Amino acid sequence: MKRFVLGLDLVNDATLIAEYEAYHQAVWPEIVASIKESGIETMEIYRFENRLFMIMEVQDDFSFQDKAQRDANNEVVQRWEALMWKYQQAIPGAKEGEKWVLMDRIFAL
Questions:
Q1: Is residue 58's pLDDT more than 90?
Q2: Rounded CA separation 5/16 (Å)
Q3: pLDDT value for 80
Q4: Which of 12, 41, 47, 60 has the fewest CB atoms in 10 Å of its CB?
Q5: 106 is a domain residue
Q6: At 14, is the secondary structure helix, strand, or coil?
């Protein structure tokens, strides 16, 4: 099992942040299925102000490239991602069009 931590910012607007959280209280079933089918075992998202942190535990053979290809070919995932861009903005230092950015672990106990 591998663990990844990713970061993303939300548009800094209280109404939009509340809407974003509401969507994540009732994630579309097709999205949950696509996450599980890609080899992600657990996923948690935490928020402070407009900054998000995602923690994922994945199967050993999980691949971000394979997930991206599956997502690109899934119409429902593409609709979800387009909808989420209303609320999301790239974290400082992200590449053009990049959403969630992998974070480097700098300490472990």
A1: yes
A2: 23
A3: 98
A4: 60
A5: no
A6: helix
Q: How many residues does the chain have?
A: 109
Asked whether residue 97 carries a pLDDT value surpassing 90, the answer given is no
**Whole-Å CA distances, 97 to 37, 48, 61, 91:** 24, 23, 26, 11
Q: For residue 7, give the CATH number of its domain.
A: 3.30.70.1090
Q: Give me the number of domains the chain comprises.
A: 1
Whole-number Å distance between alpha carbons of 58 and 46: 18
Arithmetic mean of pLDDT over the chain = 96
Give the Cα-Cα-Cα angle 12, 101, 66 (nearest 5 degrees).
130
Q: List Cα–Cα distances, 56 to 12, 45, 46, 103, 105, in angstroms.
A: 24, 9, 12, 12, 13
Which amino acid appears at position 58 of this protein? V
Q: What is the pLDDT of residue 16?
A: 98
